[in-house]
Design brief:
With 566 residues, the protein is an alpha/beta fold. The chain is 49% helix and 20% strand.
Length: 566
Amino acid sequence: MKEHSDVLAGGKRNILVADDEFINRELLENILSDEYDVLKAEDGEMAYEMIRQNRNTLSLILLDLIMPKMTGLELLSRISDEPDLKGIPVIVLTSDHDSEVESLRNGAYDFIPKPYPQPDVIKARVSRSIELAENRQIISATERDELTGLYTIEYFYRYGSQFDKYYPNAEMDALCFDVNHFHVLNERFGTEKGDEILKHIAERLETVFADKASFVCRKTADTFLVYCSHRDHDEYAKIVDQIAEIGEDLHTSLKMRVGVYSCCDKKLDIHLRFGRAKIASDKIRNNYTVSVSDFDEALIDAELFAEQLVEEFPKALEEKQFLVYFQPKFDIRGDKPVLSSAEALVRWIHPSLGMISPGAFIPLFEGDGLIAKLDEYVWRRTAEKIADWKARLGISVPVSVNLSRADLYDPELVDTMEKITRESGISRDDLYLEVTESAYVSDSSQMVDRVKALREHGFFIEMDDFGSGYSSLNMISELPIDALKLDMKFIRTAFEKKNDTRMISIVIDIADYLKVPVIAEGVETEEQYLELKRLGCAIIQGYYFSKPVPADEFERFLNDKKEGKG
């Protein structure tokens, strides 16, 4: 048998016997060679060199403590200090019982006494030590996140639960750190830069929470969890600021937020504790003035309510619990207001919860990707109602429906709108399409191309929520629109500030230049109506004329128009 080899021949594991006595080396080789490739070293220095050379294939070291040039204890200490060697298991060979304890303290897995026991005992101890070491390596590989070196979520929860077991009275906080809009950093700088940011965040968190009563992990891409001894609100705010300083070092803007479930109820499963911290973090997702959010029980109620709405959405669609309401729009350019069109607005009439506000479910469905299904439902119900009015009343007005950002990403959108108008028997002139100003700006080239395609197929396009602060005036001149619809808050702000309507006047001038009408929504008083008329606004909608009403109530406006009353 060669005493120098770094090849794992025949699929056997390599083990090293380090003993200065020839007879001991030969004896151990004879016992173990059927199952292992045995390397041999006769002194401490030779053993160290062979360990270095074979560190990637060596499965075990059998180490005599009394050797020339370097003792076994010295070699064991050196192995334990070197990161690329300390994972190799060591069984100490000794007749000195006092040295057994010291060897174990220095990292030895086991010991075999001299004179040697029966061969089966030696084989069993060797096999068991190798198995334990390999299991430890597997655990180590799965224990740490590959990118950041923090605990993975599974081990994080495991170690946190173990800590609770041994320190049941310790007051602990569950924290959820998130990077605000991390996807923007990835898109702007690339994933390599994004990974660098995440690694720096991990290092900073480990530094801040370095005490033994703290555990840190990376849960998902940009979400970090910390289980730590209780701190006050202001201290967490300072920690967030410390992490945000990383952005300055990396020449980028980094905004962090943290959700805090303070003094955890340890009767709750540890997963649920961090679920509460995540709920608190999500509460301030788009709030750039607040960086720390504390959990309270009301958030759980809101979360459960949101989950209920998402869960019941398919059934609500099937049972047509969603009703389309209509709010009239009046052309005010003539001597008296004339009904010119309407806007379709969805309402959820829940069988047990009653009327659910759109403000509760629209943002929720936008976040969960359900909004596209709801939008198409509204388009179809609206088209059917327009067709019904034409057939039954002999009159209709164009009705505008909302297109969400998700709809504009759909490559089949134009075909879907064509199909709806064709199947319902209405024309493209009957169905106006409202696109929010923010949707144009979010991915302008793709959105503009999609809207252009809709216009080319004959659909009337209204830019909704104009004045909410997203686009430049220069950009407006390049967008495919047929009408500008002023945001409700824009109208309200103008009249609240000592009737300073100069901005409204400027927008109307721009619309005149573009040869498109201006629609003002949220008009509530006669004063607003008269001033908008004086400024040259074309169309208004709002509670001054009518709140959104069910289809049967809206028929009153259609009948009045048919009879020439407005």
